[in-house]
Design brief:
The chain has one domain. The chain has 7 helices and 6 strands; from the N terminus they run ααββββαααααββ. It has 156 residues and is α+β, with helices and mostly antiparallel strands.
Length: 156
């Protein structure tokens, strides 16, 4: 499957030299490793604020590519989908996967070897077992009261 993000022509290791707020849209999108974890439904403990990822996928997640099947028009189908941007990253980092490049860069940490910007190959995130490829269950077929039965430990 062709990588949906064109990484050609991007400056090497741009994320280490540019603040997140100054990234172009293309650079911002290229930071996504394609794991699909941000498209999993999450459970937040009301007392502790701790967030757990579940295997219960958003209805728009393509389980094979680990990408949104309707990315450009996703709000027509899922109005509550969060559009992650540099200006709202601080408010949303708490629920983002620990391996997420946006979170890592925000925290001043390096990207992992399997990230496509490091490996040069969008398949390494899947080969390393980091993505949710083949792990998800449908939110339509999984009642919310059963989501706790589908909690994933990070990293996957």
């Amino acid at each position: 499957m062709k990588d949906p993000i064109d990484r050609s022509g991007l400056a090497p290791r741009f994320w280490e030299r540019k603040p997140l707020a100054r990234l172009t849209r293309r650079e911002w999108e290229a930071l996504c490793d394609g794991c699909g974890k941000c498209c999993l439904n999450k459970l937040e403990d009301e007392d502790t604020g701790e967030v757990a990822l579940t295997r219960v996928a958003c209805r728009l997640l393509d389980d094979h590519s680990c990408r949104c099947a309707q990315y450009d028009i996703r709000h027509q189908f899922v109005p509550e989908c969060i559009v992650l941007r540099p200006e709202n990253l601080d408010d949303n980092a708490y629920w983002m996967p620990r391996t997420c490049a946006y979170r890592l860069v925000r925290e001043g940490r390096p990207l992992y070897w399997w990230h496509p910007l490091i490996s040069g190959d969008p398949e390494t995130v899947h080969e390393a077992g980091i993505s949710v490829r083949g792990l998800t269950v449908s939110e339509f077929e999984t009642p919310e009261e059963e989501w706790e039965d589908h909690i994933l430990e990070e990293p996957i």
